[in-house]
Design goal:
By secondary structure, the protein is mostly helical. Helices cover about 70% and strands about 0% of the residues.
């Protein structure tokens, strides 16, 4: 990674993170994510440009509205910094699941994919729901991006078919698991939103990447569930959101799919 790519990635990530904060706040409430512009949710006053600079403005205002002095959640700068960190990770050499179209295109593709997953994970964590429009358009965007980058490498149709298959497999496999669990235990093990999120992962990652993402999500989710049950924070048969674990699996799969595939499914393979 060179400084000339890392710095723009961080700045772009901060700006995108600022927008994602709006998505996480407004979408579950059924509000438009475009109109009105950024404003204080307490007094409704619109923010000036200098009050809307990622992280800096929150620090400058000391976490309070410049008009009514009501507190501004630290969630906003936290999401902005998290998004910036993800974009910087994507600037690392060799990172990306879209083949080898070049560092900048891989950075933009990965940034779009992971920036799409972040609000889904945060909304599911808070509401136990995965918004249908985000999942649906995430699948469409993933397939379009896969095809476009495949065209650059002269195998666009082949990659599109491969990623379409992965999306269908992700959707149907999760729906089958949920239906089977409902017959055996009388309650679904997974929500329909999880199946749609799995389809989104497949559309971006392909079959191999989807396999890595789901395996990691199940493993990390199981560790969380066991730990929460032992500590008493989770009651027997109490549901908890699985979307954040799928998103985390998608992140790791995008960053290091081949290494993780070898580690999870073929540990005898040596990766140079």
């Amino acid at each position: 990674m060179t400084i000339h790519l890392a710095l723009p990635a961080a700045l772009l990530g901060l700006c995108i993170g600022s927008f994602l904060s709006v998505v996480v706040w407004r979408l579950p409430r059924g509000e438009s994510i475009i109109w009105p512009g950024s404003h204080c949710p307490k007094c409704g006053k619109g923010l000036a440009w200098y009050q809307n600079i990622p992280v800096f403005s929150w620090c400058l205002l000391r976490g309070r509205c410049g008009f009514c002095q009501s507190s501004i959640s630290a969630r906003y700068p936290a999401i902005e910094l998290l998004t910036a960190g993800i974009w910087v990770l994507l600037a690392l050499p060799g990172v990306g699941r879209m083949g080898n179209p070049g560092a900048i295109l891989n950075l933009l593709a990965g940034g779009l994919f992971l920036s799409w997953l972040l609000p889904l994970a945060l909304i599911d964590l808070k509401t136990m729901r995965l918004p249908e429009p985000l999942c649906r358009w995430g699948v469409v965007t993933g397939l379009c991006g896969s095809f476009a980058l495949g065209v650059i490498q002269a195998n666009g149709a082949e990659i599109l078919l491969y990623h379409c298959l992965a999306a269908v497999v992700g959707l149907l496999a999760f729906e089958a698991v949920s239906a089977g669990a409902e017959k055996l235990m009388g309650m679904p093990a997974l929500g329909l939103g999880d199946a749609k999120l799995a389809a989104l992962l497949g559309s971006w990652l392909g079959l191999k990447g989807l396999g890595v993402a789901v395996a990691l999500a199940v493993f990390i989710g199981a560790l969380f569930g066991i730990g929460a049950r032992i500590s008493g924070k989770l009651k027997a048969k109490q549901a908890f959101p699985f979307g954040p674990f799928l998103a985390l699996g998608g992140l790791f799969s995008w960053l290091a799919c081949d290494y993780l595939w070898a580690f999870l499914f073929n540990p005898a393979t040596e990766i140079l």
